[in-house]
Each structure stands twice: as structure tokens, then as C-alpha cells.
TrEMBL record:
Organism: Cellulophaga algicola (strain DSM 14237 / IC166 / ACAM 630)
Sample GO molecular function, one term: metal ion binding
InterPro entries named in the record: Metalloenz_LuxS/M16, MPP/UQCRC_Complex, Pept_M16_N, Peptidase_M16_C
Domain annotation Peptidase M16 C-terminal: ranges: 212-388
Domain Peptidase M16 N-terminal: 77-202
Annotated protein name in UniProt: Peptidase M16 domain protein
Amino acid sequence: MELLNKATLFSLKKLRIMKHTFKTFLFTAFAFFLLTSIVAQEKFTLPEYTKVQLKNGLTVYLMEQHEVPLIQLTGVFPGGAIFDKKTKSGLANSTATALTLGSKNYTKAQIEEKVEFLGASISTRASLEYAYISSSFMKKDQKEILAIVKDVLLNPVFPKDELDKMMSRRLVEMDQKKESPRAVLGDYYNKFVFGDHPYGNPEEGIKATLETITKEDISAFYKEMYDPKTSAIAVVGDFDTKTMKRDIESLFGKWNSENSPAVNLSEIPKNNESRVLVVNKENATETTFYIGGPGVARNNPDYVGLEVINTILGGRFTSWLNDELRVNSGLTYGARSTFSHYKLGGSFIISTFTANETTEQTIDLALKTYKKLHEKGLDKETLLSAKNYVKGQFPPNYETNSALAGLLTDMFTYNFDEAYINTFSDQVDALTVEKAEKLIENYFPKDNLQFVLIGKASEIAEMAKKYGVVKQVEITADGY
């Protein structure tokens, strides 16, 4: 028995030593992880890349990333909804989508089968300002996938039977989209705020004009807008730069266009009074809304500082807006604020949703919380917390090939350079309370706010008059 007790005591001592050693290991590992994370934040810079311009004017970015045998290609072209004519709203988006419906050497089915077989992806889309192509594939499949990408981009045939099916689907999808207020709120807001300016064009168009778009319209738009001189391609992944440059030149070097896309982007209109758009959705049990005003362009030199301040107001879960509207009052499941950026300007927006009967209470609380930014400003502790959060969130934003390729094409389209990345932490650190107060005064709209409310008009329209001049439309009506 004595021997057994000694053995037990020895085992317990050994176990305690093992536990202590393990705890020490965990603490050391955590400390090392924390230290390396901080160092990574401080030293994070854009990876080395090569920028070249082909003889046809196409700008090409090449960035090697060898961690995994994957490659990402992202292309950007001046074919966004700002180029739509009123009589052909939705043409830009239709053209971008139709690129993958068939090309000179591949049918739609062949494209889909080959891409699926290789576990790759090829997609096209159009935003408000630009059209995009995106492709992700294994290094070993580069030759096959790039051949398809080239043919899709340079030799689309827009087969009528596939176009007809695409248009039918899109018309159905537009009806379905209006069943979700959050899916269409941005379209209503842009149209309300920007009016007839091209930034007011809905990205997907409207049903009345979609039904009139023909194959000839799409072909003409493609020939006019997809021009290498005003386009860029970024390739990021596991490749040799010299070899990839040669391959890209071989594939896209003969792409030419006689046109130079142009659109008259006049000065963004200013709203000189507070206005309210009430979008009646008769069966709505809750109100979804935006409150907003003028924003800034993507290349604004104060972009980083504004991101930090907005983090405090409505850019994270512990933000003022979410704390007041969700955590403290239970009026919503989430509230946020953001800056939407375009090439020549943008919008500042507060967004949330609530039950019909608490709409007025929620709007009032959102406004009260927002006004605190102007009336009370920020203290050092709050600002420091936001700065640490923003710096911590920044590096993971660019961990993937797709994110890096998107950043490179954004640098091309929105006219900023790698200094945004390389000096990001320095810019965050340089933001003081005094500087923040100036940014709040200059960029966070104080007067003439614009409100867009989607909900049951019979319960919210009268109340909405307290916020500004009210205009009412039906969500079932075509367009925005």
C-alpha cells in the first residue's frame, strides 16, 4: 500500500509538472503569437508587384504569391451602369453577364463544363462604374483557363437563345428582389439622392427597358466600352512574373478597339433641404431605412481617418449606433454606418430596420446618436480603441489572391497607389482627437439629410413628415 501511495504521489507530481509546463508553453505561444501579430500589423506592406502597359494600352499588374498553387485573374473595364442610357437601363449589366454565354470557340455549356471539371471559376459582372471579369484556377490549369478567359473577353458572340433565357431570368429576379427591402434600398437611395446624374442609374436596370434590350444593343455596347486602353488586368498567385507577362501579352496583346469610352460625369447634385422617400410595401411588418448625405471619393486623402471615425459610429458591433439601437434599446438586430465610395464622390449612410410601430423611435434614436458625433466629439480612449481595432482588421483584408487582385484593379480604377497600404498604420496612428474633430466637421453631413424608408406607408408616411419633404412611391412600380 505504501509503495502504491508513493507511486500515486509521484504520478500526481509528474502530472502537476506536465500541467505547469503545458501552461507555460501555452502562455509563451500566445505571447509569441500576439507579438508577431503586432509586428505584422506595424510592418504590413503591399507585396512586391510588376506593372506593365501593353502596346495596345492594356494595363497589367503581376504579383507572385507562392503559398498555394492557385492563381487569381481580375479584369476591370469601363462598362458600368453609369454608361447606360435612360432608354436602355440595364444594358451595362446585361452585357457583362452575357460575356460568358458563349464565345467564338466555346459554347456556354462547354465553358461551364470545362471550368467545373477543373474546379476553377469564371464570372463576370458590372457595378455602377465598371465591369469585371474574375477567374480563379490551379496553377496546373493556367493554359486551359486563360484560353477561355481570353475568348470570353475578346470574342463573345452573344447567342440569341442564351440571351433570351438570361433576360427572362433577370426579369423574374427583379420581381423577387423587390420582395426584400434590403436588396433594393441602395437602388432607391441612389436614385433619390443622385437623381438624373449617372450615379443614380440602377445597376441592374429596370424592367421596362430590359425588355427592349436586343442582341444588337449588347454587341454595340461591348464594342464601344470594352477598350484595352482604359482597362486593366491583375494576376496574383503561383507563377513566374516573366513567364506570365509573356503569356498575357500573347493572349491579350492583339486586343484592340477604335473607341474610347466616355461619359459626362457632371458635378454630383447637392440637396439643399432634408427630404424623405417613402417606398410603400403594403405587406411590410417592419421599416428598413437609410439616413444619409454626401460622402467622399475613394482616393480622398482623408479616407483612412474617416474609416477610423466611422468604426466608432457604426463600423463594428460595439459601435455607438449598434450599442444604442440594438444592445441598449432592442429596437433592431443591427445598425451600422458606412461610406460608399465612387470615383468622383459617394455617400455617407446610416442603415438599420425595425418594426413598423417603432419606426419613429428608431429614427429619432439613430439621429440622436449620430448628433453626438458632432456635439460631443471623441475622447482619447474611444479613439485609441478604434485605431487598434482598425489596424487589427486591416492585414486580413488582403490575405487572399482575390483580395490582392481586387486591390490592384481598385488602384487602377480609383487612382490611388500603394501608399494607401504601406502607410495605413502610420495614418491610423497619426489621427489625433483634434484631427478627428476636423474630419467630423468636414465630412460627416450635419444638415439636409436624406431619408429613404421602405415599409407600410399607411403607418409611417405621416410620421415621416417631421424629417423633411415627403415623396411616396410604390415598391410594386417599375424602377426606383
